[in-house]
Amino acid sequence: METEMMIQATEIAAGQWQRFRDALKSADLPADDIDLPGRTFFEFSRDGETVGWGGFEAHGTDGLLRSMVVEPAYRSKGVGAEVLRVIEAIAAEQGIARFHLLTTTASGFFEQQDYAVNQRDSAPPLISQTEQFRGLCPGSACYMCKALSANARK
């Protein structure tokens, strides 16, 4: 019988930003725009231990998955999938119907989570005009998207 991990999401507050930036830097993820308006980021914990970070930008009913990173000690243990599930559920609860992302290293992981590879120029205009698309992520990054369910959190 599979048991659900009890991962808690806490919106990142002032005292946590440096730890988040350090985690992004160690994972070679961009951090230049994380404090701009319209972005929501979370610290994820399990049993009082930080297991990862991540969040999204909302652009109407489209969202851009941002800066998801799992602490090295928790990688390859299902934590990333659970963190993603929680981010998707929060986004769906906030009215986001479709998630988009760019990745240079994790397309296989996201394909396992039902994200589809698409041509970068097929992204909706509000998504293609984000900092991620316009320059933070290289042109070689894989563009992926997924429809979210309003009942993503079970």
UniProtKB/TrEMBL annotation:
UniProt-listed Gene3D superfamilies: 3.40.630.30
N-acetyltransferase domain boundaries: 1-149
The entry's keywords: Transferase
One function term, GO molecular function aspect: acyltransferase activity, transferring groups other than amino-acyl groups
Superkingdom assignment: Bacteria
Stretches of the chain forming a coiled coil according to its record: none
Protein name: GNAT family N-acetyltransferase
UniProt organism field: Pseudomonas poae
